[in-house]
């Protein structure tokens, strides 16, 4: 077979198919392969007119169809299938070729695969791709990790197919070596969980405390979407809330089971944060909230537990409360992004990736699920101060949170009084207050640990480690 394709995609389910079409529509010749050949045939039959596709029937044909250095994109189910595809294709490749894993891999798997393939001279490019099937087709946000050489060969093509931010720049950047791209994609998804949870809490408060209908709440979200909360998730929230179920005529949101799934990446964000010792409490609460929602038996058994009665607000009170909820949502959002960026900074430091946080914010401005006007502000904050230890240290965000905090606290008081669960808002405010605190009860914790386990403590007034002889005369000794 002639060497004709500039890039190849193996794994032609929704994501791979649409990404292959995106490359072809941008003028690249694209070799196609899928374990089950019918998918390859279907793609060519349905979309063959869109560009130069080179369908192939087996791995050897696929590899032979690619120009060198080969760019081989793998879009199969993450985990075992990715390893089996690598086992199948790597022996057919030559030094300098690239395997681009666009699946949702765990970054530790990506580090392992990159190390193994590096030994054979093959570049393994673990690449986060966000935007779902529409994004894959029209322009996703792309987070590639891997060698500098591989980005030189691949980057220009990724820049063509990626989403473009409002200023025209492509939503892709070389994140850093080995697993950095998949790490950043994982945290993106964790932040997405938090965003969705916070929006959900705002909705529930407007429903239960303000007494608004879903259609009215949709209007509120539409209005918020014209301001600083302007984002894809707020926009689709308004659409979902205004939708009526055709079968019953009821609001769609009232006929959907209130049980959500928590899949790999949200959970990984929290697990990785625990390993790195990074407090991502808002993200963790979002994962736990989904998990709680799925415990149907536990919820059924607890439904009769006592709680406060409803205290309906009048029209003016409800409108004032809605304005407070906007403040609480925005302030909580700043905190959850602060936590997510902290996690990326910690991963970058741990693994020596040197991730540019401003560049990460820039490529999330479009194409991905958390795309939002807000990300331009985050990019500007990191660009102005690349070593910014926390987004809350940015004057602009600190000022906005300062202005929001009274309303934020008032919303939590109202939620608690009326028994509306707001774990995301509450965790975000607790995080904020803990960071502000002059003294934390960790001093007491250290005292307890020293009491029962002689774990020692440090003093505020002298260097060194100390232990108090609790069971004896309570004298203090150097430890
Ligand atoms: P799926 O995750 O559903 O995977 C289906 C594809 O994997 C098919 O092409 C299938 O081939 C192939 N495959 C499997 Br399963 N086992 C295989 C094996 N042992 N060897 C070779 N091929 C195998 O597809 P998707 O939803 O298009 O997602 C693709 C990747 O993109 C996943 O890693 C996903 O996490 C990631 N992702 C998805 C989204 C999204 O919105 N869906 C967004 C971002 C990233 P077959 O046709 O022969 O069964």
- The topology string of helices and strands comes to EHEHEHEHEHEHEHHHHHHHHHHHHHHEE
CA-based gyration radius: 25 Å
List segments where confidence is low: pLDDT < 50 over at least 5 consecutive residues.
none
Based on secondary structure, the structural category is: alpha/beta
Gross geometry: globular
Question: Number of DSSP helices?
Answer: 20
Helix content: 55-70%
* Major β-sheet profile: 7 strands, mixed
Average pLDDT score: 96
Oligomer: single chain
Give the number of DSSP strands. Answer: 9
Name the strands of the widest sheet in spatial order: 3-2-1-4-5-6-7
Chemical compounds bound to the protein: nicotinamide 8-bromo-adenine dinucleotide phosphate
Strand content: 5-15%
Question: Can you walk me through this structure?
Answer:
This protein is an alpha/beta fold. Strands 3-2-1-4-5-6-7 form a seven-stranded mixed sheet, with helices on both faces. Strands 8-9 form a two-stranded antiparallel ribbon. It has 20 helices and nine strands. The radius of gyration is 25 Å and the shape is globular. The structure holds nicotinamide 8-bromo-adenine dinucleotide phosphate (NBP). The site of nicotinamide 8-bromo-adenine dinucleotide phosphate has 23 residues, from helix 1, helix 4 and helix 6. Nicotinamide 8-bromo-adenine dinucleotide phosphate binds next to helix 1, helix 4 and helix 6.
């Amino acid at each position: 077979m002639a060497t004709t394709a500039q890039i190849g995609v193996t794994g032609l389910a929704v994501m791979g198919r649409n990404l292959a079409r995106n490359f072809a529509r941008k003028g690249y010749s694209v070799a196609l392969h899928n374990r089950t050949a019918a998918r390859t045939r279907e793609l060519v039959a349905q979309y063959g007119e869109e560009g130069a596709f080179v369908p192939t029937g087996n791995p050897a044909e696929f590899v032979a169809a690619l120009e060198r250095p080969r760019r081989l994109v793998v879009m199969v189910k993450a985990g075992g299938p990715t390893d089996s595809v690598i086992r199948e294709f790597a022996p057919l490749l030559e030094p300098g070729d690239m395997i681009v894993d666009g699946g949702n891999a765990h970054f530790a798997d990506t580090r392992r695969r990159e190390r193994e393939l590096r030994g054979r001279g093959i570049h393994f490019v673990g690449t986060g791709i966000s935007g779902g099937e529409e994004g894959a087709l029209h322009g996703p946000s792309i987070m590639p990790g891997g060698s500098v050489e591989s980005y030189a060969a691949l980057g220009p093509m990724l820049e063509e197919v990626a989403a473009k931010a409002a200023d025209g720049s492509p939503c892709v950047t070389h994140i850093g070596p080995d697993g950095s791209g998949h790490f950043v994609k994982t945290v993106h998804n964790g932040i997405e969980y938090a965003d969705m949870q916070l929006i959900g809490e705002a909705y529930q408060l407007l429903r239960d405390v303000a007494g608004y209908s879903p259609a009215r709440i949709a209007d509120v979200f539409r209005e918020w979407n014209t301001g600083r909360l302007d984002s894809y998730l707020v926009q689709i929230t308004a659409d979902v809330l205004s939708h009526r179920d055709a079968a019953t005529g009821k609001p769609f949101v009232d006929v959907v089971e209130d049980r959500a799934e928590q899949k790999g990446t949200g959970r990984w964000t929290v697990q990785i944060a625990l390993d790195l010792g990074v407090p991502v409490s808002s993200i963790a609460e979002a994962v736990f909230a989904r998990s709680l929602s799925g415990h149907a038996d536990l919820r059924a058994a607890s439904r009769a537990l006592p709680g406060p009665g409803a205290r309906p607000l009048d029209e003016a009170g409800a409108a004032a409360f809605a304005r407070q909820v906007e403040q609480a949502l925005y302030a909580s959002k700043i905190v959850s992004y602060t936590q997510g960026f902290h996690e990326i900074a910690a991963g970058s430091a741990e693994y020596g990736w040197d991730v540019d946080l401003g560049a990460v914010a820039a490529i999330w401005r479009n194409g991905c699920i958390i795309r939002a006007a807000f990300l331009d502000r985050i990019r500007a904050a990191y660009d102005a101060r690349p070593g910014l230890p926390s987004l809350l240290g940015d004057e602009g965000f600190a000022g906005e949170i300062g202005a929001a905090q009274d309303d934020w606290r008032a919303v939590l008081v109202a939620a608690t009084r009326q028994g509306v669960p707001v774990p995301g808002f509450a965790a975000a405010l607790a995080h904020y207050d803990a960071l502000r605190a002059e003294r934390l009860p960790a001093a007491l914790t250290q005292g307890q640990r020293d009491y029962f386990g002689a774990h020692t403590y440090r003093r505020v007034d002298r260097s060194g480690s100390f232990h108090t002889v609790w069971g004896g005369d309570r004298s203090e000794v150097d430890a």
